[in-house]
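Need residues for this backbone.
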């Protein structure tokens, strides 16, 4: 190879690299939903880049949501619960649902939705003691249509450890269909496989994400 050919190659390679770099346009990062705010365990707002966080405030709806973990604590994302509501003598409401048919480590027996509600209220998670099951409309507000294939239909950047499965709502007295019709009624859940509502028996072991609508951090 002649000297002038070598010189041409040495000049051409950097030039080609510069042109390629100029033409390359990295994909724009997805903007963080401005209405989601991370909240620490005491109830204070956190910077978007900070962690870990215990709750998420949805400024759009004013709702404060429980965030799941992988620490085998009360809020472990893998724990499941049957749907159960204890009797309320003051309101003359009898007990409803099926107790102790889910799996968790923080109860001597198996778990139901009342167990998680009671423990979370006692803990005063994120400064709140009025945690409850969400309505179907509230829970569906978290459905994220742009979730990656095979992932739960929720924004995992804010709601980690969410499972692809059914999450209980507070709504019950819904008629059961098909193979469950002999049980007459069940409770409504939202599937975070496809984001759709589904009625399942109270005895089923499903997931739970608690909510409260009275958080001061969400109404500032």
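Answer:
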């Amino acid at each position: 190879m002649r000297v002038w050919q070598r010189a041409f190659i040495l000049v051409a390679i950097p030039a080609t690299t510069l042109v390629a770099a100029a033409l390359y346009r990295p994909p724009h990062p997805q903007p963080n939903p401005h209405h989601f705010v991370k909240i620490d365990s005491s109830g204070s707002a956190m910077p978007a880049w900070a962690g870990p966080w215990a709750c998420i405030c949805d400024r759009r709806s004013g709702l404060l949501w429980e965030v799941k973990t992988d620490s085998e604590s009360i809020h472990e994302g893998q724990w499941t619960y049957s749907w159960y509501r204890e009797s309320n003598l003051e309101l003359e409401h009898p007990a409803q649902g099926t107790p102790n048919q889910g799996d968790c480590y923080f109860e001597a027996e198996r778990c139901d939705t009342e167990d998680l509600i009671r423990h979370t209220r006692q803990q005063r998670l994120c400064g709140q003691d009025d945690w409850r099951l969400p309505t179907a409309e509230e829970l569906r507000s978290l459905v994220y249509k742009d979730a990656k294939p095979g992932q739960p239909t929720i924004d995992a950047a804010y709601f980690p450890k969410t499972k692809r499965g059914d999450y209980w709502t507070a709504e019950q007295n819904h008629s059961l269909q098909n193979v469950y019709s002999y049980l007459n009624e069940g409770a409504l859940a939202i599937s975070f496989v496809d984001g759709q509502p589904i009625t399942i028996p109270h005895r089923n072991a499903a997931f739970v994400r608690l909510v409260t609508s009275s958080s001061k951090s969400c109404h500032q």
